[in-house]
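JOB MANIFEST
job_type = single_chain_structure
chain_count = 1
residues = 150
[input]
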Amino acid sequence: MKSIFLNKIYLLSVFLLLIGCGGGSGNGAVATYEVPELTDDGWKVASASEVGIEVNELSSLANSLQTNQYPGTDSLLVVKDGFLVQELYFNNFNRDKVHDLRSATKSITSALVGMAIDQEYIEDVNQPALALISGYSEIDNWVDGKMILK
């Protein structure tokens, strides 16, 4: 059950990265696959083949993005089994540039909640969010319309 849920999360993550885009176009360069750089951001990295992804498929996707077949895409990150296996940026974006996702976050969050309900991680849409946050058991009070948690 959990592996199906995680596979859905993986596919949804790729979808989120494709729709979280802005204006502009790719640079037209042909992509060759490279293992992402290991940084101190907490992500483990691996080659696509180490986690069972065809390198040719990732290269094909990257080439489609870089040749503007999906205009306005600014980044592509692929994570599988907890490993970052692809990290590409377009349109003058990079890992350090904050990106405005606008309403994409709401769409992805609602899809994730639906999958969590389907996999019985969440009871239903009426379950209080506070019950899902580890370490917070009660609301002390409200200040200026915001919860103060104990």
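[summary]
The mean pLDDT is 78.
The first strand starts at residue 44 and ends at 45.
exit_status = 0
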